[in-house]
Design goal:
Helix 3 (about 145-165) packs parallel to helix 4 (about 180-185). The protein is of the alpha+beta class. The chain contains four helices and 14 strands. Strand 1, helix 1 (about 15-25) and strand 2 form a beta-alpha-beta unit. It has a single domain, classed as Deoxyribonuclease I, Chain A (4-Layer Sandwich). It starts with a strand and ends with a strand.
Length: about 250
Amino acid sequence: MSLNIASINIERSRHLSRVEAFITRQRPDLLCLQELCERDIPFFEALMGGPMVFAPMARYPEEGPANIVGVGMIARDDALLDVAAEYYSGSPERIQEMAFITAEGKRMADPLSIAEVMLSATVRGFRVAVTHLNVTPLGTSTPYQRESAGKLIQLAQAQAQRAGDLLLSGDFNAPRGRATFDMLAEHFIDGVPAHYTSSIDGSLHRSGDIPFMVDGLFHTPGYQLENVSLSTGVSDHCALSCRLSKA
């Protein structure tokens, strides 16, 4: 038994035609999305042929009235079982409008205005989760990001203990080789091969080429990943793909 998975930060609605082409081409069994606009859920349900589960994180002010953004999961031809949305900062009852600050001369989202959540579900006996950790100036490991990562790790460990194993996917905003990434890699196996040095698609990202491996596939020892690959031309972040099976 195995599960083909794709995890993508889709940058809201900016690249839907590219994302659609990728999904049509790759036909993943399970799709994990970050920066998903709630209004686009019907688009992905029509594309995948199943119901989406969604956890809101913020209201994006530049997206108009229908501006709720979060993380989502959807399976093709399989039910998502035992769905859990566990917030490690903020709450679904108090979703805020995203604020922006200037740090290191760059405009960035204020992490305190964004809720953080781990959305998990079971598909074909596999426990999979998706999350989006807070952004930091120039990929630095800040105390707040490390605090959030610590809470995320505790939630992920608890899910893994209950289910037996776990694959944690998402945009961690924590470049490989820095302190926040090291926290995650201390507790879970980094499933992205070392020869990949960036998950930023410089042709689509507003900052161009950045050597930051920030999107990840972390898993427990009872799972193994095969055919792990990064695809460009999908969004401002590369799409991560893998085949998940039991070790």
